[in-house]
């Protein structure tokens, strides 16, 4: 896998992809070596979270449940990671299960969830679910689409297993945004500083994510942008590209802001704020809630 040979290509749906693509075996080997599995007695999760960071991790599933706004049903999470979202929904009475390449994160933070997790290649597992006729009321797919070799294939598979009245929550970075262009034009970042090959193969901004979803059978009902942490790059005193160590303080600022908004004003205010961010084209991450469009 030659990362230096990869170039951005605009796709028919409007988003950007890096080409040439790695093979599935190359990508699996990369993630296995870089992220997964215990080596020399260490795991990739050998750091700690503060109490407020742990509480902040519940904002994402709380927002999803708030947007869902109905009784608990059947939930699938594609890309479970450390298990915070899956654990939240199980505790709230959902019939929830998850898929991931590995169970390392769950074993580290929520070992009781191992039985609710199926590990392996997500595309193969989704194909198996489609063949079995499985459907889910709520599907959560956070920070997965940017990593996969075939993003539109993933959107098609998720469309095939969502219930007729179901909902998808899909979150990706907001890359190639006007704010990132502004950072570059003012000399605070190198051109395309947001590229992260081969971890991120696919790049969506707040204009192109809804277009990609619409092209593959989805109707976006909510589009939200999270705290625009990259605004700190406009200030030399907080530019974490120039000095990586500054990033931690910027992260804690984001956590404090979002937790304060949630606690002081409630989830309606969080959704209103995030809705405005997406409308303005900002937010380091963006989330689309989408339902199956009429065929």
Outline the secondary-structure elements.
Blueprint: E1 7-10, E2 16-19, H1 24-34, H2 51-56, H3 59-68, E3 74-78, H4 84-91, E4 95-100, H5 104-109, E5 117-119, H6 122-131, E6 136-142, H7 151-161, E7 162-173, H8 178-185, E8 202-203, H9 208-215, E9 218-225, H10 247-265, H11 267-280, E10 285-292
Parallel strand pairs: 3-4, 3-6, 4-5, 6-7
Antiparallel strand pairs: 1-2, 2-8, 7-10, 9-10
Q: What tags apply to this protein structure?
A:
about 300 residues; alpha/beta; Rossmann fold; seven-stranded mixed sheet; three-stranded antiparallel sheet; about 40% helix; globular
What does this protein look like?
This protein is α/β, with parallel strands linked by helices and 295 residues long. It has a domain at 3-38 and 49-174 and 194-228 and 285-292: Rossmann fold (3-Layer(aba) Sandwich), CATH 3.40.50.150. The protein has helices spanning 24-34, 51-56, 59-68, 84-91, 104-109, 122-131, 151-161, 178-185, 208-215, 247-265, 267-280, and strands at residues 7-10, 16-19, 74-78, 95-100, 117-119, 136-142, 162-173, 202-203, 218-225, 285-292. A seven-stranded mixed sheet has the order 5-4-3-6-7-10-9, with helices on both faces. It has a three-stranded antiparallel sheet with strand order 1-2-8, with no helix packed on it. Strand 6, helix 7 (151-161) and strand 7 form a beta-alpha-beta unit. The protein is globular.
